Amino acid sequence: MALSLENARKIIELGKDKAARDYGRPICIAVGDEHGNLLTFDRMEGAPLRSIAISQQKAYTAIRIGIPTDAFLARLQRDKLEISYYCDPALTALPGGHPLKNKSGALIGCVGISGLAAEEDHAITEYIANFVAEGNIE
User: Exposed (0-12), middle (13-18) or buried (19+): which is 51, by Cβ within 10 Å?
Assistant: First the structure.
């Protein structure tokens, strides 16, 4: 089952609320479909302009590689791989991207966040991924 635009917009609000509540700083947040195509995006007032593209690339990478971007970074470092080996200039290994799986474990979309420290971006996407996996959003 694909992620609906309505549910993608709920994910946007969930991420923005968590960023404001836990970190008090603005983010850019991108939600994509099960192929990595952008469904919806939001840039909170004051979020860095560079974070627009970064958040979208984090979401794309997470779904294309099939793992959170922090795990992708760890693999690149562990195996001494260059990201260019993947032949896709849209990939990034910056933490803050997560594939989204429904309660059944099926991939339904992806989320990417940029604007905070890498571990903070990651913490928000992990929170969202867990929220979705618990069946709160289909």
Answer: buried
